[in-house]
Write a structure and sequence with these properties.
- The protein has 242 residues and is mainly alpha-helical.
Length: 242
């Protein structure tokens, strides 16, 4: 073969090889970018669902409206980011439709499992607040205020569930079990640290519920305690017999 032809053939082979490598690299990078986009989309979708779960609970409680507004704005931003990553998909619109949660419907929980589920959603809200603080969207003061609000709602959800259950039991004349639930509601509120006027008001409400449920029994308990206190006070005055 003519040496010139050999050189041309080698050049052509190298050109084909380089072209093939370039095409392979292009598709590899494209696939890599697609995988990254899908992973990012899944992460954002998970974040949106988590925020919406928290909002679903909080909107049915007496939660601070500013906290709800902050989380709602965060969900809108996440949905916009998801839409940017998936312009041809209607997933963002579907999730956005889930943001419309009725605020005039009180949260009703029928079981301990329901309490734990709602409280798990509220605890997720704490991590969301941490993320917002890290990104600079919350000041330390706002974070502290909102975090305290979540702690209050966390205890309130459990207390209200026991109060509601106790009220239903009382309607069925199951006084003892009803009072037991009222006391569990009281215990739930005592888990909340710090001073909060709402906590004291709620404890007074529970105290009245217990008293109204069985005033005679409560009065007897108070009398027994009073008698024991009087006996204890008289005991040191007794002289030993000689």
């Amino acid at each position: 073969m003519n040496p010139d032809n050999q050189i041309v053939l080698i050049v052509l082979l190298m050109a084909v090889l380089i072209t093939a490598l370039a095409i392979n690299y292009y598709f590899h990078r494209r696939q890599e970018a697609e995988n990254t986009r899908r992973l990012k989309s899944r992460q954002i979708k998970s974040q949106i669902e988590r925020v919406l779960d928290v909002l679903t609970v909080l909107k049915q409680t007496s939660c601070n409206p500013q906290l709800i507004s902050t989380l709602a704005d965060h969900s809108v931003d996440l949905i916009a980011e998801l839409k940017r990553l998936n312009p041809a998909s209607d997933l963002a619109e579907q999730l956005q439709g889930n943001t419309a949660v009725a605020t005039d419907t009180p949260l009703v929980i029928h079981s301990d499992h329901g309490i734990k589920h709602a409280q798990a959603d509220i605890r997720s809200g704490t991590q969301i607040l941490v993320d917002l603080k890290k990104s600079g969207r919350l000041t330390p003061l706002q974070f502290s205020e909102f975090n305290q609000e979540l702690n209050w709602i966390h205890c309130l959800v459990e207390a209200d569930a026991h109060i509601e259950h106790g009220n239903k039991l009382l309607e069925g004349n199951k006084t003892s079990v009803a009072i037991s639930h009222y006391r569990q509601a009281k215990t739930a509120l005592t888990k909340l640290g710090g001073k909060d006027g709402r906590k004291e008001q709620k404890l007074e409400q529970i105290k009245k519920l217990i008293l109204d449920a069985d005033p005679i029994r409560i009065d007897k308990s108070a009398d027994n305690k009073s008698n024991k206190d009087e006996s204890a006070a008289e005991e040191p005055q007794r002289q030993p017999s000689s």
